[in-house]
Amino acid sequence: MKYSALTWVKATIDESLKQTRQALEQFVEYPSDTSPLQQCAVWLHEIQGALSVLELQTAALLVQNVELTIKSLLAGKIENNESTYDVLMRALIQLPNYLDHLAIVQRDIPLALLPLLNDLRSKRKQAALAANTLFTPDLSVTIPKQKTVNLPNENLKKYMQQMRLAYQKGLATLIKNPKQPQEGLKFIYTVMQRLQQATGQAPVSKVWWVTEGIVEALLQKGLALNKTLLNLLKQLDTLINQAAQHGNAALRLFPPKALLNNLLYFAAQARSKGKQITAVKTIFQLNDYFPPESALAAARLEFEGPDIELMKVVVALIKDDFARVKETLDIFNRADNPSVTELSPLITLLRDMANTLGLLGLTIQRKSMLEQAALILDMSEGRKPANLSTLLKTANALLKINAAVDILAVQGVHARQRLQQSPNTDFSETPQFGIVLSVVVDEAKTELAQVIQPLVTFIDSGTQDDSLLEVPGRLKQVEGFLAIASHIRAANLLARCNKYIEKVFIKEATVPALPLLKALADVLIGIELYLDTLAGNPMDADDILNVTEKRLSALSKS
């Protein structure tokens, strides 16, 4: 929820961070004027407040350290030199990317920021932070439902007293024999399971559930027993005693955050793969806090990489190339006698675009782009036919690559992994899908509108003209859009309608009977209504196609 809430204020935070960077640059250029630096501190304080409200602790901590470093610089407590500017600017560049990561991926990886945090602290001669400082798991997550035995209040008190005695026995055994802990651990493990049955979904059940995972890891030697962990286990006695003393009333209390947080810290350290400890790590997403070094290195590169604002500039350039490719294919497709040599300029252009995609990290899309360049080379040299079917395959592949680029423009480097895992990016996945689709639907409806008048003119006069001869080409444009957008049924229905128009109106030059004219009008209206559904009209698309197909069958019988 907190990551979703971040998207509500992120635009404002991004703008404040941008102004903060600009103010820092202004101070670096004119160090005698400290007013820009003072404004930086004000903006950063406001940002930290917003992030704290959202409970994004690591992000808030980073902003706080940037603010404190700037205040120390203003107070003359740290050197006013290039090294100080460098660490401050690195922080202000990485912060937007880190917030993008939280908003898009919706999973934190705080240890990736630890070196930067300690660089800022080092400037102020503060002690370096340990890894556990950044361990702030979400304690509000819901654990799996337990099999619960609902006990009346007095019965619960008695049962919890029994469980407390059993727990104390297991703990005492563990303390007496720390080098041979198996017997005491097995006792505690059983008590944790029974406590869960008694307390069900009460807040305190999270403690029993997490502790069960820790004890499992200790039994499987995936975790070492030490004094700190032993002290945490001792604190559980207090919670059991609360339930023994107050019954059901105690179950409405939340366990101490520090206790649950510390238990989860040990759970995150466990190396064993048991069922319970694996479930604990998964539910609380603990692997994000202690990922392998390779994952941390990848995350740091992501945070240091180009931000979304810069990515949009690069994407805008490659989108211009996409427009040139589309224009060339459109001209070729509309030409009466197209020459395949007209496609030759696309080969170099597509190869250059493929190289740009590689630089953007879209390796699979780069491969697909090179395949399209090779296909067009084959068409231009006559090895493959340059027919509508082949061109549609190329256009479909380019549309998917274009969709990936659109996503990259909105999500930046954070989208790379998903785009490589799912190379066949569907058109509907693009963030601009609604806007783009609306424009394309309008173009398709315009083509349909320009089909009607030539047909009406022929029906009235019985004379063919150039506009009537253009009708099949216009309908093929609409058919092509429907096919590329994966609306195959609608495309097939329109193709059948187009064949009827070519046969009757153009080849045979005859005016159909009135019932057939009404059926043809219904089919064209049906396709137009279907296009409206793609643009968001709430009509039932399947019903429209069913009626259209029924009316089309009347034409087929003629």
Q: What is the CATH topology descriptor of the largest domain?
A: Four Helix Bundle (Hemerythrin (Met), subunit A)
Distance between the termini: 60 Å
Ranges where pLDDT stays below 50 over 5 or more residues in a row are: 425-433
Residue share in helix: over 70%
Which term fits the overall shape? extended
Structural class of the secondary elements?
Answer: mainly alpha
Strand content: under 5%
What is the class of the largest domain in the CATH system? Mainly Alpha
Tell me the number of structural domains.
Answer: 4
Provide an overview of this structure:
This protein is mainly alpha-helical and 558 residues long. It has four domains: 2-134, HPT domain (Four Helix Bundle (Hemerythrin (Met), subunit A)); 153-284; 306-425, Four Helix Bundle (Hemerythrin (Met), subunit A) (Up-down Bundle); 433-556, Up-down Bundle (Four Helix Bundle (Hemerythrin (Met), subunit A)), CATH 1.20.120. It is built from 23 helices and no strands. It has helices spanning 2-29, 35-53, 57-74, 82-105, 114-123, 153-176, 182-199, 205-219, 227-246, 257-269, 275-283, 293-304, 308-334, 345-359, 363-380, 388-411, 416-421, 433-461, 466-469, 471-484, 488-507, 514-534, 541-556. Helix 1 packs antiparallel against helix 4 (82-105), helix 8 (205-219) packs across helix 11 and helix 21 (488-507) runs parallel beside helix 23. The two termini are 60 Å apart. Mean pLDDT is 84; it is low at 425-433.
